[in-house]
């Protein structure tokens, strides 16, 4: 694969991107513009990629009968330009080939991804907006970062997406998901444990880490879906939409907002069953009382509210013990297409663990997945989702 690096301060992040892609077992080859070399040296990228770096001085060295820009374009399966400056985006949109990077991009026929990085005013300029529109129309995937503090000290849009998000985008492109069953479908995933306020400081909650939900969101994204992750856990620059929530009521509102356009709903969140009847506005002072009694009332049934939505619905049942029959009954009671059961008391697969052991319960069969990583479990869950969608 090819990693194009252009002349922006975010070029230092590209070093982490290339290192990560190499650690993933890929073979990243870096092509740099002259401006990029003012920020990071080719030697740095050669060290982390374990490959020679392409740049304008090597552009016209013939090898094997083909010029380098043609050879590089033919050899790669995916190309990503990160950072992609406003200048390079304009050249790509115009089809220019006045440097090696742009010449390779013009000759390249695989998936092309760009990660814009520039000042907010340059990013919001109508010319940049038009260039990005033209690139998208040609099938180029534009991966945007979250607004925030920029290198110039100002705040706004224009930050480059985080390397972890770009790595996921590359893996999705390599997987060739454009023809997959979930390609283009909207998938809503919930994750984390909700927190129900006692006062401004304390809450009633649970030990859910959100790791399983995050793994499911990543798997759906890798399969080409348009993902919305509704979560109580903080994000880290994911390449899909993340909606932060805290309470069951907030999660229910977010699900309502997204379920109408969704083909799949995966409710992996550990939603609190009860909440204090009324939370205190300030902080309850310990010195003013010897005991604290809470009256708890049921929370909203987030999954139950989605009945009749038309989406393929997947519920989760985290039980304390091998309560498989209880999970079967829950699937029928909730009316979901699939229910994923796991025993949180089993060794190494409880809340916060990196592994899980699950049983996927459907209307006609059950699939047991022995202990493995949550990412591997998520892959099996989506295999079953794709099968279920095909059988509808």
Give the helix tally: 13
Strand percentage, roughly?
15-25%
Largest sheet: 8 strands, mixed
CATH topology value of the largest domain: Rossmann fold
CATH class of the largest domain: Alpha Beta
pLDDT averaged over residues: 92
Task: Give the strand line-up of the largest sheet.
Answer: 12-11-8-13-16-17-18-19
Q: Give the overall shape, derived from the CA principal axes.
A: globular
How many domain modules?
2
Can you give a write-up of this model?
The chain is of the alpha/beta class and about 400 residues long. It folds into two domains: about 1-175, Flavin prenyltransferase-like (Rossmann fold); about 180-390, CoaB-like (Rossmann fold). Helices cover about 35% and strands about 20% of the residues. It has helices spanning about 10-25, 40-50, 70-75, 85-95, 100-105, 120-125, 125-135, 165-175, 210-220, 250-260, 300-305, 325-335, 375-390; strands at about 1-5, 30, 80-85, 110-115, 140, 150, 155, 185-190, 195, 205, 225-230, 240-245, 265, 275, 295-300, 310-320, 340-345, 355-360, 365-375. The protein has an eight-stranded mixed β-sheet, with helices on both faces. A five-stranded parallel β-sheet has the order 2-1-3-4-5, sandwiched between helices. A two-stranded antiparallel sheet has the order 6-7. α1 (about 10-25) packs across α8 (about 165-175), α3 crosses α5 and α4 packs across α7. The longest helix is centred in the last third of the chain and has 18 residues, at about 375-390. It is globular. The mean pLDDT is about 90.
């Amino acid at each position: 694969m090819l990693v194009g690096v252009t002349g922006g301060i975010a070029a230092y992040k590209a070093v982490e991107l290339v290192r990560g892609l190499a650690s993933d077992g890929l073979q990243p080859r870096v092509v740099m513009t002259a401006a990029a070399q003012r920020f990071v040296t080719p030697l740095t990228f050669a060290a982390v990629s374990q490959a020679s770096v392409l740049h304008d001085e090597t552009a016209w060295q013939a090898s094997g009968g083909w010029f380098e820009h043609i050879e590089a374009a033919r050899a790669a399966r995916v190309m990503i330009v990160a950072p992609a400056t406003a200048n390079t985006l304009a050249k790509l949109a115009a089809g220019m080939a006045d440097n090696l990077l742009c010449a390779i991009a013009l000759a390249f026929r695989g998936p092309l991804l760009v990660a814009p990085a520039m000042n907010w005013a340059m990013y919001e300029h109508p010319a940049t907006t038009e260039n990005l529109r033209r690139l998208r129309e040609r099938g180029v995937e534009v991966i945007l970062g979250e607004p925030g503090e920029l290198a110039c000290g100002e705040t706004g849009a224009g930050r480059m997406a985080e390397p972890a998000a770009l790595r996921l985008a590359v893996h999705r492109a390599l997987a060739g998901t454009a023809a997959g069953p979930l390609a283009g479908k909207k998938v809503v995933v919930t994750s984390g444990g909700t927190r129900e306020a006692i006062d401004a400081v304390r809450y009633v909650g649970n030990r859910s880490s959100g790791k399983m939900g995050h793994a499911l969101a990543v798997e759906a994204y890798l399969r080409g879906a348009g993902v919305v992750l509704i979560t109580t856990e903080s994000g880290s620059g994911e390449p899909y939409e993340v909606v932060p929530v805290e309470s069951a009521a907030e999660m229910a509102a977010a699900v309502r907002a997204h379920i109408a356009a969704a083909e799949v709903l995966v409710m992996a969140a550990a939603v609190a069953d009860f909440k204090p009847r009324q939370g205190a506005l300030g902080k309850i002072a310990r010195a003013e009382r010897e005991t604290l009694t809470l009256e708890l009332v049921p929370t909203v049934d987030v999954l139950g509210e989605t009945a009749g939505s038309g989406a393929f619905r997947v519920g989760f049942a985290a039980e304390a013990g091998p309560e498989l029959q209880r999970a079967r009954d829950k699937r029928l009671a909730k009316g979901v297409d699939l229910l994923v059961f796991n025993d949180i008391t089993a060794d190494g697969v409880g809340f916060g663990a990196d592994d899980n052991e699950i049983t996927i319960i459907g209307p006609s069969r059950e699939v047991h997945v022995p202990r493995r990583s949550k990412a591997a479990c998520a892959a099996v869950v989506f295999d079953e989702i794709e099968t279920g969608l095909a059988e509808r």
